[in-house]
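Apologies for my clumsy wording, but are you able to produce some protein sequence, whichever is easiest, and the tokens describing how it folds?
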Amino acid sequence: MSILEEAAVFEQAKMSNMSTSDRVVASREAKRLILAINEIYKKNRDAELMETMKRLTEKKRKIEKRLKGKPTV
């Protein structure tokens, strides 16, 4: 499976009812996909690749926000 296909599958995956360890794994997978797509992007500067990276980054941020939890004062 190519990186772009993996990214599409990751984007379509449901992120509800995940355990903490599942969120950690998902965050690492998102990071791996983003970095792999970035290597391809550096070579050909395709705007579609940049949009894919932006969508993956947004999903990764949502996962990480949930991992960190609410700040305590």
Observations:
- Helices lie at 3-12, 20-44, 47-68.
- Residues 38 and 53 are 8 Å apart (CA to CA).
- Residues 20-44 form the longest helix (25 residues).
